[in-house]
């Protein structure tokens, strides 16, 4: 959980990692994640939620687990009408370190520096979560501008189509005389 200030200023508010036993049944693991996420969202009331975008990896079970956990978080946010944004691992690494192929140690070091933390966040998943939050805070203004531009383009397309339809209707009416 972070708070974004002016410019690139970000303050760490809280961080936690939900751990579930690897031998637990899937439904119990997802329930544990859901309970933790529900608690965090009700306690901190975030404006937005950033989630790592899952992409094909060599380990299908890791991809599935990450996607399922992301789905639980997305659902909890949707229940509260909180916007959800997805960022790829390379986007996060590039935003935080300047290198989309940075390793965990580089990401952790930069998160520690950016957030002016006294100690490195542990475990590594905590640093990854904070990096994801930093990435979103820094990319959010660009994402908002892109969404506004897309909305303007959609309006312009609609107006242009209406103009063409009106012109075609007028042409047909003139030909019918």
Give your account of this protein's structure.
The chain has 177 residues and is mainly alpha-helical. The protein has a single domain (2-151), classed as Ribonuclease H-like superfamily/Ribonuclease H (Nucleotidyltransferase, domain 5). Helix content is 63%, strand content 9%. The chain has helices spanning 26-44, 60-79, 89-97, 104-114, 124-175, and strands at residues 2-4, 10-12, 48-52, 83-87. The longest helix is centred in the C-terminal third of the chain and has 52 residues, at 124-175. The mean pLDDT is 90.
What value does the average pLDDT take?
Answer: 90
Count structural domains: 1
Strand content: 5-15%
CATH architecture: 2-Layer Sandwich
- Please write the CATH class name: Alpha Beta
Task: Kindly report the CATH topology.
Answer: Nucleotidyltransferase, domain 5
Helix and strand sequence: EEHEHEHHH
What is the approximate shape?
Answer: elongated
Q: In terms of quaternary structure, what is this?
A: single chain
Strand sequence of the main sheet, in spatial order?
A: 1-2
How far apart the termini lie comes to: 69 Å
Return residue spans where pLDDT drops below 50 for at least 5 consecutive residues.
Answer: none
Largest sheet: 2 strands, antiparallel
Number of helices: 5
Number of strands: 4
Q: Please, what is the CATH homologous superfamily? A: Ribonuclease H-like superfamily/Ribonuclease H
| Proportion in helices | 55-70%
- State the secondary-structure class: mainly alpha
State Rg.
Answer: 22 Å
